[in-house]
Each structure stands twice: as structure tokens, then as C-alpha cells.
Amino acid sequence: MKRSLLASAPFAPSALVALVLAHAQTACAPAPSASAPTPAAPASPAADIEADKRTIAAELDDWHAAAAQANEARYFGHFAKDAIFLGTDAAEHWDVPAFRAFARPYFEKGKAWTFRATKRTIRLAPGGQSAWFDEDLETSSLGPSRGSGVLVREDGRWKITQYDLSIPIPNERLSELRALLEGPPKPRSKERYKEVYAKASALAESDLPGAAKLLADMVPEAKTHPDEDLEFWLHNELTWLHWAQDDLPGALAEVDAMRATLDHGTLSPDATATLRLHERWDRAYILLEMALTGPRDKRTKALAEANAARTSYETLAKARDDRDGLTALDTFFAVRLGKSKEALASAKKVDLTQRGDVQDLYIFQLAYEAGGDKQSANAARTQICRAKNYLMRPLILHRGAKEGWRC
């Protein structure tokens, strides 16, 4: 049964009269004109604000957890479409695609970074469609840090549209920091490596042991960066410096060091597989040289080891479609094993004008020489002599001089 509105109203009679009069006045009032200003959106009830704050805090906590768990899709799913991330370096002003490209190698390693909020303040804008926050962070890599940012409602969720990561500096330490920043920058490992590599390449023209020492002296520093490929390339270059000096056991030791670097490094699986191609190719090459120059009574076993290394390389090379490397190594084995016709046929598959790698050109000129094609052999040597000067070029020229040809 319906109850009477008047019977259920919790008002005193005088209040009821006033209410009825007020209602009548409102009903008779003229409608607002089209140009009248729109009233401001009413503030969200306190309960809604607190619920939004809890939701935002949970989103931010999950965002940080996704980084710690190296979950790339989940981490970047917390960003709004046009989000910006500001890092601690002045150059780190990224939109989402740029930030994702920077961060991907860290996620691929299985561990990105660990940030945990120890204190956080969240405020909502009127209308409840955006919010801003600041948080104190405990981090594994930066020490005590601070983050602040803005979130918006997008696709039914709170998403980060701007995040600014910073490292608070105590005021009393600012003068020290300024002096550090204004002083000469300490060269980073890769920057130093470029300088050392250039010096070693120039020195290798006249002093192979000196060039090797320059590069070997960088190995201890490179070992402190297992997330980079620097140590691998140093051992690779040292392999061929030993080879150019006819130190094949020393060359093989460097190949073993290349493999150990990959086994214990933290590079991405794809980068590791690419570098393993180089290590296996070098191993097969050096083992064949050792088999053919070593004791005759041990040659059968040594050749078996070289062929096993070659097969190991071929398996990975075919999986990654490394045709250039396969052709060069096939040609080299044919040359060294005295299969001159096979070597010549393999070399003729290659357009020398499209090859800039001087080691490949060296192998192909060996094949042409063995197969009696003097003109093509000379053409390959001319390309070696005209090649840009990087470390392998003087090493090949040293070997060429021993074999009776020069530029």
C-alpha cells in the first residue's frame, strides 16, 4: 500500500508550508536562458574520493610490481595513450614507444628494476577525471628516490599520463654535486673502448703485441658489465691478434673466453644467439688451423674436433639464416683440406664487390689462388687493400705478407 508523502515527511508543519511555497516558486520561475553559465560539476562524495585513491594506489603498486617481475606488457599497460615518462637523466624525456624501446632489453633479461613506494600522497581534481600524486621510493638501483605524476581515467581505468622520476639531493650536498657535474666527465666503458679500439687498429700495422695489450687491459673493466657485449668483442679481437702472430693456442683460449662470457652474461637470448654464431665460427676456423699445423699423430682427432665445431656452427647458422658465414667457412675448410675445385666453386658463388669483410675476402682469395684463378685472387686482394682501416685489415695484411703478397 502506498504511503502518503505528507504522512511520512519528517518536517514540522511550518517547515512543510515553507517547502510547498518554495516548490511553487521554483515551478513558476522562468527557464534559464541558453547563454546562462553551466554550473560547476558537483564534488565527488568523500566515499567516492577515498575509493578512487585506493584504486589509484593499487594501480601504481601493480605498475611497480610489473617492472620487478619483468612483465613488459603489464607494465606498459598502465600508461595512457599519450603518456610521458621523465627519467633522472636530462635526455630521458620519452613518449611510451621510445620508453618501451629503451626498457625492452631490461625486461628481456628477466629483471627490469625494483621500485617500492614507502610514502604516497594522492589528490583528485574536481569532477574526479584526473588525479596527481607524489611518492617516496625505495629502489634497488638509484637508492632513495621520488616519483610524481598525473593519472587520467581512460578505458574505464586509471592510467598514468605523466611520471617524473627524480633523486632528491640534500641542500648541503648541492655544491659537491655541482662541482662533479661541472668537472670533466669520466669516459664510459664503451666510449673508452672506441678510443682504445682505434688506437689498437693503428698500432696493429707495426706492433701486434702492443695492440693486443691495449685491448687486453680493458677486459677487467668489461667484466663489470655483464649486461653488455663489450667483453665478448674484446676476446674476439684478441683471438685474431693471436692468430696473426701464429699463436693458435692463445687464439683458442680467447675463443673459450668468448664462450664463457656468453654463458655467464645477462644479454638477451637473441643477442646471445647472434654472438654465439661468431664464437662457433671462430672456434671451427682456429681448430682446423691447429689440426693442420699440429703433430701428425694427433691430426685425426684434431680434425674430428674441428669438424664437430663446424657442424655446431652450421646448425645455429642455418637456424638463423647466416648464409654469408656458412659460405665463408665452407670455402675455408675446402681450401685448407686441399679440395681446390670445391673451394673455387664455393668462392664463385660470391659477388666480391658486395663483400666488405676483409676476412671473408682473404678466404676467397685463398680459394681463387688454390683453384688457379689468379685474376679473381688479385681482385680480392685489391679489395682488401682498399678496405676501410679497422682492426682486422692490418692482421690480414700481416698474414698476406707471410704468404707472399702485399698491397
UniProtKB/TrEMBL annotation:
Signal peptide annotation: 1-29
InterPro entries for this protein: NTF2-like_dom_sf (IPR032710), SnoaL-like (IPR037401)
SUPFAM superfamilies the record matches: NTF2-like
Record carries keyword Signal: yes
Residue ranges of every copy of the SnoaL-like domain listed in the record: 57-170
Keyword set includes Signal: yes
Pfam families recorded: SnoaL_3
UniProt keyword annotations, A-Z: Signal
Protein's name in the database: Nuclear transport factor 2 family protein
Native source organism of the sequence: Pendulispora albinea
Lineage: Bacteria, Pseudomonadati, Myxococcota, Myxococcia, Myxococcales
